[in-house]
Amino acid sequence: MASEALLLREAEQPAVRALPSNVEAEAAFLGAVLIDNRVIEELRTPLVPDHFFEPIHARIYERILHLLDRKAVVTPVTLRPYFEADEGLKALGGLAYLARLTANEQGLLAPRELAEQIYDLALLRELVSVGRNLVEGAMDTSESVEPLEQIEHAEAALYKVAEGASTGSEAQSFSTATRTAITAIEKAFNSGGHISGKTTGLSSVNQKIGGLHDSDLIILAGRPGMGKTSLATNIAFNAADRLRRDLADGIAPEQSVGAATAFFSLEMSADQLATRILAEQSGISSEALRVGRISREDFQQLSFASQRLAELPLYIDDTPALSIAACARGARRLKRRHNIGLVVVDYLQLLQGTGRAQDNRVNEISEISRGLKTLAKELQVPVIALSQLSRAVEQREDKRPMLSDLRESGSIEQDADMVWFVYREDYYAMATEPKEPSDTDPPDVHTKWQAWRERMEQITGLSELIVAKQRHGATGKVRLRFEARITRFSDLADDDMRTAYGDDD
């Protein structure tokens, strides 16, 4: 009786189903491409070799792309030398299979639809893989299992599926990487030789770093009062505003050097950041806006600025005590919904780790910096993370920061592709103001005060962006103007640079 029940249960089990695929559609599409190479140029779907289910089809398509990159005409005849020893092709009939691909011209009737079907089936196979891994992980009840970590991995895997990425093979051919590099170089060339990534909105900074590059982690650090949040806000606004203006001018998003921007603010609220941007754009001081000390004309100017910024693709998340995992989830959602091209985190030390390393702050910061770098690579966007500096800066006569001043972990420097420091000499000079002399004071007191005053006139409103590390180019410093009243950084005029600093670098 028990054996009969077991047999009955086994009979009720669903049969093992084959993975979603359509090998005939793949063959028809390849045949269409071999008949007319221009078919690939007209595809709406980003088809890559990994999207093909049949391995030999994937290899054929990869070779087709390689030959087309070399401006060669691809036919069964030109493909023949590359597949004479291919064991997979021999199993399908050998070199005659290449000729049979072009025998059926049905693929030419609907190549786009065939490509879309191949792509969709590949995504379904990815979903099957993600689901299988998720079930296997959920069934594991060992003590070492972290359910929240599994959810994080599952969400990351689902995001890759949504983006069309292949979770089966993370490697890409050199030809694919080369095409991506050439596209970036072409973008820099078309911009006049200055920007290959996203714009910072500051010409002098763009010229130094070539723009903000996808998958880069940029650490922007400084002591309190230097204006690092102001600079990050300026850059976030400039990138978002450039995209808004380019779209209004009919420029395609992929051709724009602007970017929809996600700003994760763990220190300031969303309305405080909005106030800063309104102050910068209206020219009214942030303090006056906060206390309402503005005229009717100022209010009208503020209203015009807010209307102009209504369509700004800048998204602010001011969730306090945010974990690195929650930050990544939020960024993925914004990427999916709004196609963000830049992420700003203010600031790194306020993020929380997974909890396993909280007994060791250095390990936790290392985990967070690695998480931010991973996020930049996963979303293929630049990530700007603000960071604190240690108090060692204050103990030196020269207050300019160095890489060793990065607080709490050397891994921040290691994970970063670029490290920037914000330095304002006038901030420190203000603290050394001598007592204003009276008529009864000796001449040396008057001389000292006058020298301080002249120096303040030269350096007030000037700042330096120190590029202390850059994987893509040289280090150095960029001189900028900082208007503290409206918290705005801007480029220095050439005359101002020579007057303030001379001709040295």
Tags for this model:
single chain; 505 residues; alpha/beta; DNAb Helicase, Chain A; Rossmann fold; 2 domains; 9 strands; 50% helix; 10% strand; elongated; disordered N terminus; disordered C terminus
Strand coverage percent: 5-15%
Give the helices and strands as they follow along the chain: HHHHHHHHHHEHEHHHEHEHEHEHHEEEH
Kindly name the structural category: alpha/beta
Low-confidence stretches: 1-16, 165-170, 497-505
Mean pLDDT: 78
CATH topology of the largest domain: Rossmann fold
Principal-axis shape: elongated
Structural features, described:
This protein has two domains: 23-171, DNAb Helicase, Chain A, CATH 1.10.860.10; 195-424 and 461-501, P-loop containing nucleotide triphosphate hydrolases (Rossmann fold). The longest helix is centred in the first third of the chain and has 29 residues, at 111-139. The model is unreliable at 1-16, 165-170 and 497-505 (pLDDT under 50). The radius of gyration is 29 Å and the shape is elongated. It has helices spanning 2-12, 23-35, 55-69, 76-83, 87-91, 96-101, 111-139, 147-162, 174-190, 203-209, 228-248, 270-282, 286-291, 296-308, 324-338, 361-379, 411-415, 425-431, 443-459, 494-501, and strands at residues 217-221, 261-265, 314-317, 342-346, 383-387, 418-423, 462-470, 476-483, 488-491. By secondary structure, it is α/β, with parallel strands linked by helices. A nine-stranded mixed β-sheet has the order 3-2-4-5-1-6-7-8-9, with helices on both faces. Helix 16 links the parallel strand 4 (342-346) and strand 5. Helix 2 (23-35) runs antiparallel to helix 7, helix 7 (111-139) runs antiparallel to helix 8 (147-162) and helix 12 (270-282) crosses helix 14.
